[in-house]
């Protein structure tokens, strides 16, 4: 495979998925069983027919029919929580020709409906499962079978750093990968995980959803508004993408809860809120406060603030707290306008807060929203 990709002028190294690691370990173990030959590396074929060359960390034969192999996960320059962990495959030859794949220690189990894997099964997605089967079949042939157990002793702890619990995957990591290859700086896998979570909520019967940019919003929703955390999905910086997914999946009501510093960008039609894409917080505040009549000297003070928290002190001092309701209403307007020309029609309400002050404003009285979204 191509080992590098250029992103924003930088040369970045590609990596391989947990699915590719599990496949490589399985191939190395099967090769030792069938050919009595240890491999320092193996070449596996990805779901998109690309060759991936992967080093083998360890190989151990435990008896005539059993070998355990390990691969170290390498995410390239897009290192995630699983980067550097060891993923193992235990391969046992069968008397028949069937290949059976199971998950062992450190591989999560699915506990909720809505995923590609049935409840109770190990979190080994269909594409990596097929990748393991196809590559091992090339080694053992059509007449031999194998029991393959994928395990990762570090998986239980590492899974705490992933979105698995949000998806109802308990006890470990997932074996994932639609292409087998990790492309640095790619947001696709993150967005895909959010879409999966939204689809899962819909299949579980949720007709409306709470969206938050991250932990601060979730904490405010649960601890200040007393809302059910199961109704909340983190949209990160992908506000526009997630709103369109909400509409595609069929939700008709959305409550967006977030810190002013993040959601204020949406009030100006900025739907990718990462600072690398846009940082116009002060400019948006200045424009709205100017329309309200704030003096030029105070507007200049706002313009020089590095955070919305600092701007908030000036806004309180000068008595312009009404700007927060204007911004909340504009966030609602921009969000609904984004979805205007497709069905179903999506109703959006908004709550904005600051770390210092707490609640700043909402599109409806906060008590009314708390009652509606209980």
TrEMBL record:
GO MF annotation list: cobalt-precorrin-5B C1-methyltransferase activity
GO BP term, pick one: methylation
Catalytic activity of the protein: Co-precorrin-5B + S-adenosyl-L-methionine = Co-precorrin-6A + S-adenosyl-L-homocysteine
Keyword vocabulary terms for this entry: Cobalamin biosynthesis, Methyltransferase, S-adenosyl-L-methionine, Transferase
Family: Belongs to the CbiD family.
Range of residues in the leader sequence: none
Organism: Vagococcus fluvialis bH819
TM spans (from-to): none
PANTHER family assigned: COBALT-PRECORRIN-5B C(1)-METHYLTRANSFERASE
InterPro entries reported for this sequence: CbiD, CbiD_sf
Top-level enzyme category: transferase
NCBIfam families according to UniProt: cbiD (TIGR00312)
Domain of life: Bacteria
Involved pathway(s): Cofactor biosynthesis; adenosylcobalamin biosynthesis; cob(II)yrinate a,c-diamide from sirohydrochlorin (anaerobic route): step 6/10
This protein's name: Cobalt-precorrin-5B C(1)-methyltransferase
EC numbers, comma separated: 2.1.1.195
UniProt-listed SUPFAM superfamilies: CbiD-like (SSF111342)
């Amino acid at each position: 495979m191509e080992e590098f990709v250029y992103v924003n002028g930088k040369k970045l190294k590609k990596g391989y998925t947990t699915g590719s690691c599990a496949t490589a370990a399985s191939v190395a173990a099967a090769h030792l069983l069938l050919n009595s030959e240890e491999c320092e590396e193996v070449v596996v074929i990805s779901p998109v027919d690309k060759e991936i060359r992967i080093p083998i960390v360890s190989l151990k034969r435990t008896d005539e029919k059993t070998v355990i192999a390990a691969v170290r996960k390498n995410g390239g320059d897009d290192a995630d929580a699983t980067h550097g962990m060891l993923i193992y495959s235990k391969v046992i030859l069968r008397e028949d020709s069937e290949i059976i794949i199971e998950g062992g220690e450190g591989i999560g189990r699915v506990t909720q409906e809505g995923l590609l894997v049935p409840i109770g099964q190990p979190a080994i997605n269909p594409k990596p499962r097929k990748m393991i089967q196809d590559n091992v079949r090339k080694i053992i042939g059509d007449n031999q079978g194998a029991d393959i157990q994928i395990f990762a002793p570090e998986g239980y702890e590492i899974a705490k750093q992933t979105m698995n619990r949000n998806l109802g995957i308990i006890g470990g990591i997932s074996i994932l990968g639609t292409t087998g290859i990790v492309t640095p700086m790619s947001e696709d896998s993150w967005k895909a995980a959010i879409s999966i979570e939204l689809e899962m909520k819909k299949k579980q019967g949720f007709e409306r959803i709470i969206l938050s940019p991250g932990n601060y919003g979730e904490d405010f929703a649960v601890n200040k508004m007393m809302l059910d955390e199961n109704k909340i999905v983190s949209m990160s910086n992908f506000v526009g993408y997630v709103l369109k997914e909400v509409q595609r999946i069929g939700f008709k009501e959305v409550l967006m809860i977030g810190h002013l510093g993040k959601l204020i960008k949406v009030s100006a039609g900025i739907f990718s809120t990462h600072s690398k894409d846009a940082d116009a917080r002060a400019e948006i505040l200045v424009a709205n406060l100017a329309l309200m009549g704030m003096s030029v000297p105070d507007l200049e003070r706002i313009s020089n603030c590095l955070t919305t928290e600092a701007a908030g002190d000036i806004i309180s001092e000068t008595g312009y707290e009404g700007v927060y309701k204007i911004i909340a209403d504009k966030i609602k307007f921009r969000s609904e306008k984004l979805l205007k020309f497709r069905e179903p029609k999506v109703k959006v309400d908004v709550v904005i807060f600051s770390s210092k002050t707490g609640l700043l404003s909402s599109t409806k009285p906060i008590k009314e929203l708390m009652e509606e979204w209980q």
